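Preliminary data (for renewal application), 2-acetamido-2-deoxy-beta-D-glucopyranose complex.
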Amino acid sequence: MDRERCCVRLSVQPSRGLVDEKFVVLVEGALPGVQLTVRAAHQSEDGHSWEAFAHYNANATGAVNVAKDPSLGGTYSGVEPMGLLWSLRPVPGSIPGLRMRKMNIQTPMVVTISVYQGQLTEGFVDEVPLASVVVERWYMAPGVRRIPITEGGLTATLFLPPGPGPFPGLLDLWGGGGQLVEYRAVLLASHGIASLALDYLTNKMVVETGKMVDNQYFETAYSVLREHPQILGSRIAMLGLSFGASVTFKLAVYSQVVKLRCAVCIGGSHVQLVEGSVEQMLSVFNEHANKTRINEKNEVIWRDLVLPIPTDPKLKVDVGRIRCPLLLVVGEDDQSWPAHESAMDMKEMMERAGNSNLLTILSYPNAGHLIEPPYTPHTRASRFREFRGNQTFMALWGGEMVAHSRAQEDAWRKILVFLRENLYGGSNPGPASLSNL
Ligand SMILES: *[C@@H]1O[C@H](CO)[C@@H](O)[C@H](O)[C@H]1NC(C)=O
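Predicted structure:
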């Protein structure tokens, strides 16, 4: 036992990296064959404690390599190099419905990796680890510039990649929760794509006037991006998730101003009032939301939102008219939007219109609605407050942890390839990495 305490070494490489970078966790100097527990602990910005842990047996030389050796139990099992991150979950006793979201992207996500003697499943705070390493996971690579944008009444942040530019640009939209959420845009900038995170539901103008944005707000955002001296105005993409994907479909097809090189839509639906304003689009969803069912776990199910997919052309975006490459990312266990059904309908529409050569669908069995950057802990359901709603409820997003985590890793890699191919015209700027910058 003393030998364990004195000699066990733990290393994590890189200990400072981007959130979507893999790391290698290595334990050395243990007794051959001894049982060990490796644990990751994280305190989120909103003050909640998260953990993940796994049981390993040291090999004949007293080592465990988390990237190569199987977990025998814990919050994940089998060989899972990044399981210590994607299986993070709130510690026992936490309030239900937490979701991990980084709001201050100028600081890293800090994770403490520790190794303990024996097979522990609880009571970690009372145990002294054999060794610990503090790991920093960044959304923002060194050299990325963060520029708040207020021009044209926008509430937005532009992230410029390191280097002289100009860069291709991207307009990044999140869904119905509103807020200025920056972590995906800054991560894209860390990978060479200048990205504008846009708050379009809870932005300053809306707060001051009480009126929702009109379609022009998005066109203003696009124009600000296009005219920026550091942006290649003819190389602009859009990326939207959930309601942000609905807006993306609409702009890509109907806007006279927005000219896109390509679009990425995650968990989105083309079913919407085509002639409608943002307000009308949302009220249709809210009408359905009021009719939601609640399951035995008190989770609200939106599954019947806009199903079956209507045949009335006024009720869906005519994707047959899209003129740029479109990447759809859908989870087949999406419990909040019929994204999969919508994707199948879009595929048919595009085939009929003869533009299906522009369409790529990434469809993931057992993945849910919130397909986020790699290693983001899976959240099957979380407390959700709609931007205007005065009530908070449990939203069921769906997905099964392992499949969902694999989907996030695969989708992100393919999204980056898709964006680079279409925005850089095939030339690859190379992945940014804290360890090689
Ligand atoms: C034990 O694992 C370490 C780290 O993966 C490796 O370098 C070493 O070769 C392994 N020893 C044996 C006997 O397999």
